[in-house]
UniProtKB/TrEMBL annotation:
GO MF term list: ATP binding; ATP hydrolysis activity; ATP-dependent DNA damage sensor activity; endonuclease activity; mismatched DNA binding
Residues of the full protein shown: 10 to 357 of 635
Species: Aliikangiella marina
Name listed for the protein in its UniProt record: DNA mismatch repair protein MutL
Cellular compartments per GO CC: mismatch repair complex
The DNA mismatch repair protein S5 domain, residue ranges: 218-336
Gene: mutL
Role summary: This protein is involved in the repair of mismatches in DNA. It is required for dam-dependent methyl-directed DNA mismatch repair. May act as a 'molecular matchmaker', a protein that promotes the formation of a stable complex between two or more DNA-binding proteins in an ATP-dependent manner without itself being part of a final effector complex.
């Protein structure tokens, strides 16, 4: 290399560009499951099956009965910055779907062997697509399948050894997958979900036809002990509707493994919101112990920005402080009503 060679610029080939993008969203097998579940939910599926082998490192397969992908769009589905979910700048201001970046399938496909099989309701045939070579040219073949979409991701990170090195044990990776699965199961009661690991059913929840069945699903996902201790709460403010289940302070955990927050149906890990709940439980739990809760916030889509981070785990509210304070107060009120209730039964 002489100096002039080193300073010339060339465009990255498609696969490499997609692999770089994958670095942001595809950290481990659970990230793949998260993206694919989001796609199935956005496609209006009422049944979703997740099959993984070897903690997802060997295989992740997601099958849904959603609206499917048109044959002529299969190539675009695997192309970066191609999406059916937004089309103009204004759409970014009120996102109604879980996805919108148009990056997941292209990214995952660049770091694995991905096969997409899909059939729309009005098509007699299914079509199967995969991206080949450095330019990721998409090859499409006819296939047999029921309406819906199936995505198979085999040998994740086989061509990105730097990432592969960070894979943990099969058990650890599967635990992360199960966590992602649980979050979506708690966010979508009307969808039937199944999770299999190495051909064995790990979790299965039927669709809930009515709210009376929610607690059964919550027991499957969070355990009967949580359900037995759960206080249901609901409140409505001008900017935000809040509801969910709070574990009584007498039920506490060493880990934060039963702490779920959803905004407009989207599972989030938001520091501000977690802080609000922690504040409400303050002084009610033994030192070092963790509260348990499942909380749903609903705000106008224009009041929340989900385009903050590629993984979409974080959000920003236009009225961050207000939402924080309303959440803290709602939880605190629900918990203290509970305490008064107990005192009323057992007067001193
Ligand atoms: P995004 O979800 O941000 O649009 P993706 O790369 O995840 O980007 O998916 C690209 C497109 O492929 C989606 O916009 C959608 O039209 C289509 N698609 C992906 N998965 C499914 C699915 N399971 N069912 C129907 N369409 C899908
Ligand atoms: Mg997506």
């Amino acid at each position: 290399h002489n100096l002039s060679d080193q300073t010339r610029i060339s465009l990255l080939d498609n696969r490499l560009a997609n692999q770089i993008a994958a670095g942001e969203v595809v950290e481990r097998p659970a990230s793949v499951v998260k993206e694919l579940l989001e796609n199935s939910i956005d496609a209006g599926a009422s049944r979703i099956e997740v099959d993984v082998e070897r903690g997802g490192a060997r295989l992740i397969r997601i099958t849904d009965n959603g609206r499917g992908i048109h044959k002529d769009d299969m190539g675009l589905a695997l192309t970066r910055h191609a999406t059916s979910k937004i089309s103009k700048t204004e759409d970014l201001g009120c996102i109604q779907t879980l996805g919108f970046r148009g990056e997941a399938l292209a990214s995952i496909s660049a770091v694995s062997r991905l096969t997409l099989t899909s059939r729309t309701r009005d098509s007699e045939l299914a079509w199967q697509a995969s991206a080949q070579g450095r330019d990721m040219a998409v090859d499409i073949q006819p296939a047999a399948a029921s309406p819906g979409t199936r995505i198979e991701v085999a040998d994740l990170f086989f061509n990105t050894p730097a990432r592969q090195k960070f894979l943990r044990t099969e058990k650890t990776e599967f635990n992360h997958i199960e966590e992602v699965f649980k979050r979506q199961a708690l966010a979508n009661f009307s969808i039937a979900f199944m999770l299999k690991h190495n051909h064995k059913i790990a979790k299965r929840v039927p669709a809930c036809a009515e709210p009376a069945q929610y607690l059964k699903r919550i027991a499957t996902i969070c355990g009967q002990q949580f359900v037995d201790s759960a206080i249901e709460f609901k409140c409505q403010h001008e900017v935000v509707k809040i509801s969910g289940w709070l574990g009584k302070p007498s039920f506490h955990r060493s880990e934060s493994d039963i702490q779920y927050v959803f905004i407009n149906g989207r599972p989030v890990k938001d520091k501000t919101l977690n802080h609000a709940v922690r504040q409400a439980y303050e002084g009610l739990l033994p030192p070092g112990r963790m509260a348990t809760y499942i909380i749903y916030l609903n705000v106008d889509a224009s009041q929340v920005d989900v385009n903050v981070h590629p993984t979409k785990h974080e959000v920003r509210f236009s009225e961050q402080r207000l939402v924080h304070d309303l959440l803290a107060k709602s939880v605190s009120d629900a918990l203290s009503e509970q305490v008064e209730f107990v005192e009323a039964i057992y007067p001193e």
